[in-house]
Every structure is written in structure tokens, then in C-alpha cells.
Amino acid sequence: MNRKHVLIIDGMALLFRSFFATSFTGQFMRNQAGVPTNAIYGFLKHLTLANKQFSPDTILCCWDLGGKTFRHEIFPQYKANRDEPPLELLPQFQLIKHIVQALGIENISHPGYEADDCIGTLSTRLSQDHKINILTGDQDLLQLINQNTYVTLLKKGYGNYQVYNLDLLELEWGITPKQLIDLKALMGDSADNYPGVKGIGKKTAGRLLKDYSSIERIIENIEELPRGVQTKIKNDLEMLHLSRKLATIFCHVPLVFDSSLAPWEPKYDVISRSFRDLGCSHLTSLVR
Questions:
Q1: pTM of the shown model
Q2: Which end of the chain has the least Cβ crowding within 10 Å, N or C?
Q3: Percent helix / strand / coil, the chain, rounded to 5
Q4: pLDDT tens digit sequence for 42-81
Q5: What is the per-residue pLDDT across 248-260, written as a single tens digit (0 to 9) for each?
Q6: Which CATH superfamily, name and number, covers 174-247?
Q7: 5'-3' exonuclease domain: from which residue to which, for each copy (predicted)?
């Protein structure tokens, strides 16, 4: 089999990051129809720079669809603390998908699942035979790292990355990808609004995983733990298991996508025409 290098884009992470990087100025870089395009501009810049730096054979882009997911069904408070997206960002959600399609890149999503789950499913399906590079700003995706899957975290500015493989994750975090799930289950995630075990922070959670390797082993040996830690875990055992489910990226979404992984070969005449039709001719130069 022809082993390919597949770049999977976390579309939501790139779009949000690009919006907030420039929105504070109040300059939203509108297109001919008056629709803000500042997030789209940053997205395209990140995309083209990553393509030049990593030279993938093909690119896929994953999105949230909005609305409730299976995580809301098992924990209604999931992400309930998040504000609504800014008004200037809302019209850019649909416009960027049209632009990505015009670039010849497949948009991938599925009702009831998050972009993370779609990314996890793609990487699980493809990493046995191909090299996978996930471009994101979301550390949650580090749990997907394996021998053939890398996670590239965006850093400040354009073209600045930290590429994580198994060795670097172990060096910097002191844990394996699977242990990252247990770490979040123990300490919770304020951004996603689930508590984990109350009173257990990152330091204690990390020490527990270093000593016992997994939640199962921690529970098996709970009588060995300091009395206060024992009490906290016993009191929140149900939430610990629930938080673990919430933290785990689901890697079996029934996705339909072009599994041929045809090489990405931008057709600039088509791109130019499509961008013009979308009122975004001012962005065409970013992808040349």
C-alpha cells in the first residue's frame, strides 16, 4: 500500500483561534457583502503555512455541527458555561466551509459528535497504513498520539508549532496518551464544565497516575492512598467514571469520506472563481 501523509485540520480550533487573535482590534476584514472574514483570513494563513511546512499528500478538515452531542445526553451541563459565539463570527462558520470546499479539501462532520470525535475516528482508521498529523490548538487531542499519529499544537503567531509524538508527550507531560484521559477524569476540565474529583488538581492527579498508572489501579489500591485523597475519590467515584467518558474522544463515528485520499492539488482557476463568487476575492492571494 502507498503510505501517505495525511494532515487533519481541526477546523473549529483554527477558526476560533484566528477570530480572537484579531477581533480585539475591531477590524473584521469584511468581504464585498459586508460579511466579516477575519477568522477566515487567519484560518487560510494557518492552513497554507502548515501545508508548506509539513507537505502532506492530502488534507481533511473536521468541524462541529453545533447543537447537542452524546456528551450532553450523559451530562447535560457539558460545556454549559461557554458563551455564545460572537455575532461577527457566526456567518464565518458556513462561509469557511464553502471556502474549504473550493480549495478541494473535504469537510467532515457528523450530527451528535464533535470535531474531536471525527478527528479521532479518521486517525484511528487511517493511522495503521498512513502517517497522520493533526493540526489543532486543543491539547485534548494529544490522547490520539500513537506510533503513526502526531499532534501539532499551534503556538502564538503563524507558522509556530509544537509537534508531539509519543516521546515528547512522555518527556513534557510524564504520561502516555491514554493516561491523559485519566488525568482529565481525575482533575476535571473547567473549559468543558465537568468537575472530575473535587479537590484533586493536576499535581495530585499526575502523582496518582505516576504511582498507579490508571484509574483502575488507583481504585484497586485506594486503601494505600492518603486518607484525604481516599475520601475525595470515594465521594466522587460516580463523577470520576462519568468524567472519564466525557474526556474520551470517541473514535468510531460512522463517517463517510473519500478513503482514496487523493492528493491535494489546488486548482487555482477554480479557487479564484469560487472565491470571487463568495465575495472573497481579497483572500485568493493567501492560497497561492
A1: 0.95
A2: N
A3: 50, 10, 40
A4: 999 999 999 999 999 999 999 999 889 999 999 999 999 9
A5: 999 999 999 988 8
A6: 5' to 3' exonuclease, C-terminal subdomain (1.10.150.20)
A7: 4-265
